Amino acid sequence: MSLTSFNQIRVSSAALRHNYRLLQQRAGNGVRVLAMVKADAYGHGMEEAADVFASVGCKDFGVAEIGEAVRLRSAGVIGNVFVFLGFRPEESGLFFEYDITPIIYDLESAKSLSREALKRGQEKVVHLKVDCGMGRLGILPQEVETFVADLQELPGIVIGGVLSHFPKADEYDSQHSFEQFSRFEGVSAKAGKDRSLVKHIANSGGVLYFPDTCCDMVRAGISLYGYYPDGRVGREREKGEKLQPAMSFITRVLQVKTVPVDTGISYGHTYITKRETRLAVLPVGYEDGLSRSLSNIGKVLIRGKRAVIRGRICMNLCIVDISEIEGVQSGDEAVILGPQGNDCISGDEIAEWMNSISYEVLCLFGNNNERKYRE
Ligand SMILES: *Cc1c(COP(=O)(O)O)cnc(C)c1O
User: Fold this and answer.
1) Ligand 1: distance of its center to the CA of 220 in Å?
2) Which residue's C-alpha comes closest to atom 6 of ligand 1?
3) Is 247-345 in CATH node 2.40.37.10?
4) Helix (H, G, I), strand (E, B) or coil at 317
5) Which helix (H) or strand (E) holds 165?
6) Is residue 38 flagged as an active site residue?
7) Which of 3-7, 332-336, 342-346 has the lowest mean pLDDT?
8) Could you tell me the distance, in angstroms and rounded to a whole number, from the CA of residue 85 to the centre of ligand 1?
9) Whether 113 contacts 156, CB under 8 Å
C-alpha cells in the first residue's frame, strides 16, 4: 500500500493538449508556441506537462533557472529549452552540457559563455532580452546597438533571437501593447538583419488579444493551463472555443458535527455561530496552499453544493458550514478547485476572493500537494 495524502491535485492531460492546440491555432501556422513550464508548470508538474505538450508538437520550453532546465533534460525532454532569469558564471558549462539556450541581458554572463565556448570548441546560441516597457529584466532599447556590437566581439556567441515582454497584454482594450510592440520592432531590427533571428514578445495575453504581435514564437503560460490572463472577464468575452482548466483539487471530509449557537470556530474565534450549525472539518490548510486570507470567505463544494469556510484557516485544517447541505458524512469528497455536480469553483473565482490572480492559485495548490495525471 502506498501512503497517500487526503489531498489530491488532478491534472487533465486532455485539457492541456486541447489548450496547446488552441493556442497553436490562434498563434497561426508556422509560429512556434513555447510552453512556459516554470514554477513546475504553474503547479501542474513540469516534467509531466512538458511531456504532454511535446506529444502535441511542442518543441520549445521555458523555465526560470538552469536547475529546472537540467531537470527537464534529465526527464528526457527534447527540443529547445530556454532559461529566462540568467545564471551565475560558474554555471555556464551546464548550458553546453545540457544544450540549453540562455536569455542574455548583461555582458558578464555572455563573456563567461564565450570562455566556455572557446574551451569546448563549440558555439552558443543566445537570445537577447530587451526591456521595451515592462520595466523589469532586460537591457534598455537605447543600449541595444552597443550591446549587440559587444556580443559580436565575443568568440563562440551567436545571437539567435531577441525578445521582450508585455506588462499589459491582459488589458484587452489598452493601446499600450501596440506602442510597446512598435518599439520592439525597431529594437529587433537593430539586433540583426538576419532573417533567421527568432523574435518573440507575446505571452498568453499577446496571443489571445493582440495576435498581430505573435512574430516567430509566442511564450504561452497561463492559457496552456486553461485560464485567461484577465480572468473571468476574458473567459466570458471568448465567443469561440474556450480554454479548459486542467487542474482540480479534491479532498475528503474528516469529521462532521453539529454545534450550538454562539460557538466560536477555530483560532481566534473569528466566527461565532449565529444558530445551531452543522460543520465539516477538512484536512486542507495554508500549508496545502489554501491561503489564510480565504478565512471566512472561501467556499468549497460538497455533494454539489457550496459550503462557506468558517473561522480561520489553520495550517492543515479548515472548517466549512454544511448546514444547508443534506446528508454529508465523513469521507465525502470535497472539491476545493474544479467541478462537482452542476457547480464548479474556478481558479479565477478563488483568485477574486484572495485579491489575486489564477496564476497564484494554481502555483499554491499545485506545488503544495500530491499530483495525479489523468485523461
Ligand atoms: C511567465 C512568462 C510568460 C508567460 O506568461 P503568461 O501570462 O502566463 O502567458 C512569458 N514570458 C515570460 C518572460 C515569462 O516570464
Assistant:
1) 6
2) 221
3) yes
4) coil
5) none
6) yes
7) 3-7
8) 12
9) yes
Concerning whether 267 is annotated as a catalytic residue, the answer is yes
pLDDT in tens, 114-163: 999 999 999 999 999 999 989 999 999 999 999 999 999 999 999 999 99
Q: Does this chain's domain 12-237 share its CATH topology with 247-345? A: no
Grid coordinates belonging to 289: 496552499
Query: Which among 59, 119, 257, 267 is annotated as catalytic?
Result: 267
**Residue 242 to residues 58, 102, 213, 266: CA-CA distances in angstroms?**
20, 33, 21, 40
pLDDT in tens, 202-211: 999 999 999 9
Neighbouring CB atoms inside 10 A of 154's CB total 18
Q: What is the mean pLDDT of the chain?
A: 96
- Sequence ranges of the domains in the chain: 12-237, 247-345
CATH class as words, domain 12-237:
alpha beta
Selecting among 20, 38, 209, 227, the annotated active-site residue is: 38
Instruction: Tell which atom from ligand 1 comes closest to the C-alpha of 203.
Output: 9
Q: Is 70 in the pocket of ligand 1 (CB under 6 A)?
A: no
Does residue 165 have its Cβ closer than 6 Å to ligand 1? yes
